[in-house]
Amino acid sequence: MTxxxxxxxxxxxxxxxxxxxxxxxxxxxxxxxxxxxxxRLRSTPLSxxxxxxxxxxxxxxxxxxxxxxxxxxxTMTHSAIARSRTIxxxxxRLAAIAGLIGDEEVRNRxxxxxxxxxxxxxxxxxxCLTALDTTLEVIRPxxxxxxxxxxxxxSNDDLRNExxxxxxxxxxxxxxxxxxxxxxAGDAAxxxxxxxxxxxxxxxxxxxxxxxxxxxAAPRTFIATASEEALCGTTATKEHVDAAAALLCDGVTLLxxxxxxxxxxxxxxxxxxxxxxxxxxxxxx
Amino acid sequence: xxxxxxxxxxxxxGRFTADTVPRGALYASFVRSxxxxxxxxxxxxxxxxxxxxSQRDLDAGHLRAIPFPTTPSDCxxxxxxxxxxxxxxxxxxxxxxxxxxxxxxAFRAASLxxxxxxxxxxxxxxxxxxxxxxxxxxxxxxxxVAFTWEARDVAVARHFEECPVRLxxxxxxxxxVAMPLEPRTVWAAPxxxxxxxxxxxxxxxxxxxxxxxxxxxxxxxxxxxxxxxGGGFGCKLDVYPEELxxxxxxxHLGRPVCWIARRTExxxxxxxxxxxxGVLEAAVSGEGRIRALRYEGTQxxxxxMQLNAPVMPMLTALMISGCYRVEAVDAVVRGxxxxxxxxxxxxxxxxPEATFHIETLLDDLAAELDADPIELRRRNVIPADAFPYxxxxxxxxxxGDYPGALAExxxxxxxxxxxxEQQRRRARGEFxxxxxxxxxxxxxxxxxxxxxxxxxxxxxxxxxADGSVLVSCGLGPSGQGSETMLTLTVAEVxxxxxxxxxxxxxxxxxxxxxxxxxxxxxxxxxxxxxxGAAVRLVDRAASIASSLLETTSARLVDGNFETSxxxxxxxxxxxRAAHYGAGLPQDMPLGCSASFNYDPPGFTFPHGxxxxxxxxxxxxxxxxxxxxxxxxxxGNEIDPAGVDxxxxxxxWQGLGAVLMEGVAFDDAGRxxxxxxxxxxxxxxxxxxxxxAHRTHTPSPLxxxxxxxxxxxxxxxxxxxxxxxxxxxxRPCGAVDVGLPLxxxxxxxxLRSTDVNR
Lengths: 285, 757
What we know:
The complex is a heterodimer. Chain A is of the alpha+beta class. Chain A is 35% helix and 22% strand. Chain B folds into three domains: 6-120 and 184-260, Aldehyde oxidase/xanthine dehydrogenase, a/b hammerhead (Aldehyde Oxidoreductase, domain 3, Alpha-Beta Complex), CATH 3.90.1170; 272-443 and 603-752, Aldehyde oxidase/xanthine dehydrogenase, molybdopterin binding domain (Aldehyde Oxidoreductase, domain 4); 448-598, Aldehyde Oxidoreductase, domain 4. The relative contact order of chain B is 0.12.
């Protein structure tokens, strides 16, 4: 159906060093699960360059628990995360999120790194992992390893526009104890619709920190910073929560399509936010 | 028996049109209008050779536009040129075609065709199209009305005067995309004799006949093979301009030419289903008996008239009284041109719309009279002893047991306890609804008098020299399991193992003429034809056996032909003798095959009763179909597993129509949702377990007693779920909802009451 791209060379990398080296090649492109590349090939041919297949790099597929961090290799597929023993035993809710993504075919091919790398308006991982204060380890061309908080990575277009390898995502499993993801399958492809990921630090009286990330509502997954600020330092009374809820979509243009207009979407985000906060306060450790 | 087709179709061994493209084929790519309505010009550089073909070239090359026979014949149907001439009339209307050595090269060549567009006003809605101030789709007609059909009955007015209860219901059934897995695909290659054509179609013989007429060559010069077809659902029962153009290009250039629709292209250029709007009024006696119905329907025809556009609203009108004994019906339907992709047949074609109308009205009536919906239906259905039953619009239902299906539904669903459970859950503040639908559907198209293309099917069953059997029949299946069904039919008559039978369908090569697969014809028309041929083959084989056994009366017993004194021979011996002549008298004709032409004496009418239990989440309006109970009656069943599969597939397709599907157009008249990511179609995640039951009322019209079942699920499930949702919403008065029942629509309906404010 699709023609073989011309002038494109492929490399099956075996080690991280090989990948790092290949990043400096002109026109280097990374291939993980192919879930973004394949649809793109249907409309646009690959430009000339080097296509680096990451599937042979064992180090990128690992999942480890060490020093209190869970480290998820970037080419772990969603289904690998959903069934990983390390994750099921230490962070079962991550496994559950992985099981919600797309459908079986997408979960079997799609990777964590790909999902974070490719900006998508409906991304379960971008929302949940950002709320969980995840940090990425990346390799940029001609550079060593560096870390970047996922929260910054999502809005760092300079970094996102250049070729780079996400090595792993790391997070603290205890973050999941004060985390809630209120999700509803929405679009035709089963992605999240107006879903909201929230994590809080709550000592029974005050909320000292809070992350609120919304996906499937606007052209990009977005962080509701105004609501975060409004809720932080409060005692999370109904008035506080309502005030924060009113700011959720501040300055964001919501989608208007067959799944609903901005009014309906704002309602969904608001009601899911309230549900999420109620759950978090109820189950606070 | 396991389905004959499944092994190859489920292991990637199917042979679809794109799997068989000849080496060295050129690929075609169409330049399509991005506008709902626009005049266009294509610049040609003087003297330079252009790399594309426009309608001017097709005219010069004598590719004719064939006015396809339509019913009724007085439709106003402007001739459609294969490519638009100077005005594009819908997004996706093809204006030129370019070629390349690969799909991509062709696509690029098409993108370079210099088209200059001048946008014109458009109308995308059939109700608006009727307004005299709306833009005209075909200005030469002076109006957007494509056709009007009516069945008037003055008695209706009297009933409306006399009856104490009158009800009026307006409903729209939006246009939906058929979305077969395999998009439309066609290739054509010149041969010494003429043209070899492969196309993803439900009607190979009709494609061949229309193609021959358009190209001006004899039908005997064209072979059309459909092969495996990855879903049709009615949208592949038209002959499309692309098929004719590809055939013309192959003939004109002397090269194989192939076209494979891209997904978005397929969505905007393939017939859309449904697209009806209607007003149904009922006059009802004080006891809740419906006396008379008045129906006014509007079919969105789209920009051009497809083969079935007029047939769909006619079928809706003819079936508007559903399973009910009504004394008078007055119906008028019309078709309106709009600047949108043409509408055509889609699984059910007209009957789902009729059932949707009458069944919704029944539930409104139940609410109005404070009666139980099942009890009210029981009061109105045609009794089991009234068959054959002729409706006020002169349609004769062959057989059925509607009260029986209702009783079965009540019993398998535990209806009374479901109602009690509903009361308990409502008391807890939950939104829970039960919805019932009773339906009757018109299949086995059809008697030839009703179809311009003929409604009969011919079948041939041949005994080969080695005793194996070849069945050929002019069906064009797309996954229905027709091979299995016909294998079982023949195996039973000939008393041979199914493994010794091969079935040839979906091709014009070595197959007698047939009008293809649509309208649940497989079991109701093709199977009786094959049965008739098989019975005649037994007669023929018996005469050969008698000759070989030197008797006069060899009879088929347990797979062998026996004489009264116990001597016998089997099919392989007969096959050998018949083909090689050994042991047969000189004057006996060789070969052993029989053909039979079956023209059904009337339509068959499968029926059923469905029940859905739904709940609604009031905070976001999500509808959850919790349980489904189905009772189908399609007469006798040849392959019960195949019937299961047809009901299942149709159910989920129907769930899509009621819960999510519907083509919307933006202000510029462009369809939204033209990619798989944006187009809502039911996915596997929607599937819930359901209780499927059946009753069996054989059709008296054919010797097998079959009726066909392919479309029943889509017909029954839409009103069942729709009624259930309205039942769930009724306590708060928010019943004013329409198709599709998407969450935001339900939420808005709830918001209009005080539940969510």
